[in-house]
Amino acid sequence: MDFTVECEPRNRDINPRQLRRTGQIPVVLYGHKKAESVSLSLPTVVAERMLAAVEVNNTLVEVKVPELSLKCVSLLRDVQTHPWKGELYHLSFFAISGQDNVTITAPLNLVGEPVGVKNENGSLDVVLTSLELQCDPQNIPESIEVDISSLKVGDAIHVKELKLPKGVVSEGEEDRVVASVLPPAGTTTPSDDTPSDSEISADTTEADTANVDE
């Protein structure tokens, strides 16, 4: 298990602001034994230590509540903070026990240096740094490796081209661009409508010939 936290039952009648003044923050656990929710509290110092070690919607956290004889493996779903002070306000966990599939967020780890950057002076444009995935709760990938070494100028790799672990599927549009290689600054990629040098030369020769005939 990546991290374990020990919580206490929380009376919903207690004002969250008052709770935070005592060094605790409100916590809600969803999905445990298909219950609607369980209201809990957690020491702020423990929550801060946990946030330094786990990733939201990716890392497994064991939530224990001795007074309720509750122990379950969960995902940290949401972290709420004060708009400008940055202080912790609220945490949400989602119990994965008994769930067939869970939706998680995995970081994308770009591997290699694109050919278009190394040999063609292009620049790498990273569009997605993470991806929502659906997977078995017992096989949550920490990250997804994306090999970009073969990308040339004008190339792009899309979500549908990623090599995902067995049983893992992506959420959302499959045609989304993960990363691409842009041409060097000040240049453009030729299009089908752009005349080639030979076509321009031929047109110029025909125009000169027409002028002589006249």
What does this protein look like?
This protein is an alpha+beta fold. The protein folds into two domains: 3-98, Beta Barrel (Ribosomal Protein L25, Chain P); 103-182, Beta Complex (RNA Polymerase Alpha Subunit, Chain A, domain 2). 16% of the residues lie in helices and 37% in strands. The protein has helices spanning 16-21, 44-51, 115-118, 197-213, and strands at residues 3-6, 8-9, 24-30, 38-43, 60-65, 70-81, 88-95, 102-111, 123-126, 130-135, 144-147, 156-158, 169-170, 177-182. The radius of gyration is 27 Å and the shape is elongated.
Q: Can you describe this structure in just a few lines?
A:
Helix content is 16%, strand content 37%. The strands form three sheets. Strands 1-5-6-7-3-4-2 form a seven-stranded mixed beta sheet. Strands 11-8-10-13 form a four-stranded mixed beta sheet, with no helix packed on it. It contains four helices and 14 strands.
